[in-house]
Amino acid sequence: MTTNNTESKAQPLGIIFALPIEAHTFERRVCGTTKYQGQGCVMFEGHISDHPIVWTISGVGREAATRSAQLIIDGHQPHTLISAGFAGALAPDIERGTVLVPDRILDDNHQCIHTLGHGDQIPWPAGKIMNSNTTLITVNSVITSKEEKAQLREKTYADLVDMESAAVALVTQDADVQFLSVRAISDTSEETLPPEVSRLSKPQSSMHRFGAALAAITRRPGAVTDLWRLWEQGMSCSRTLADRLEQIAQAIH
């Protein structure tokens, strides 16, 4: 009789970031990183808190997030898939740097397409990870002005806004995979972002994004100061985001 001693591979925690700066701190905490070239994107595997992790940097927007979510699910079979990154605050009481795990996700039609209910099998120690009664809406373009944020808040009652979470949530529903959105607030409801942010946030390669940044500086020299400030704020948000993701990985493990 032949005995099979091969142990089944543990299912990983999957994470999708849109931008390199969002993943910057987290990926430096992962041990034993292995890089794979996927179909149109790069996948990474490793361990954090002895828990297997797979992640990718998808690019901005629904289409990129959908494609990456499907690739991770098909190729790595994660038990949970997280849409992680930055978000803008719509509620006036949310401060920059706050990391939220919203329990309701709205699509661009203002319809609720995901609710994190009590039936989910994800452990939440001492209630320190989940932020109850927070709603995120996913939109198709960057909301830059405080006036636009106020209008979106009035129409939807959402607390924060991003460009990817709803897309990832829909893919996980079809695949019966648990889903979380984990978002660090990069700008408050009272902040108006520099006009260059909309152009730099469009789906594009890193080289095109670099070229767009140079063009923005040429057109408006003051953009140097604004973009540098955003980069510093982004690095700070990256650290708080990594803290929360590591906490979640430990809780699930």
Task: Characterize the structure shown.
This protein has 253 residues and is of the alpha/beta class. The chain has one domain (13-193, 237-252): Nucleoside phosphorylase domain (Rossmann fold, 3-Layer(aba) Sandwich), CATH 3.40.50.1580. 37% of the residues lie in helices and 25% in strands. It contains seven helices and eleven strands. Strands 1, 2, 3, 4, 5, 6, 7, 8, 9, 10 and 11 form an eleven-stranded mixed β-sheet that branches. Strand 3 and strand 4 form a beta hairpin. The chain is globular.
Q: Any idea what the shape is? A: globular
Beta-strand portion reads 15-25%
Largest beta-sheet details: 11 strands, mixed
What is the CATH topology classification name?
Rossmann fold
Counting DSSP E segments of at least 2 residues, the number of strands comes to 11
Q: What's the number of helices?
A: 7
Radius of gyration: 18 Å
Low-confidence sequence ranges? 1-7, 207-217
What value does the average pLDDT take? 82
The termini sit apart by 35 Å
The CATH homologous superfamily corresponds to Nucleoside phosphorylase domain
Q: Can you identify the CATH class?
A: Alpha Beta
Given helix and strand content, the structural type is alpha/beta
Give, in order, the helices and strands: EHEEEHEEEEEHEHEHHH
CATH architecture: 3-Layer(aba) Sandwich
The structural domain count equals 1
Helix share of residues? 25-40%
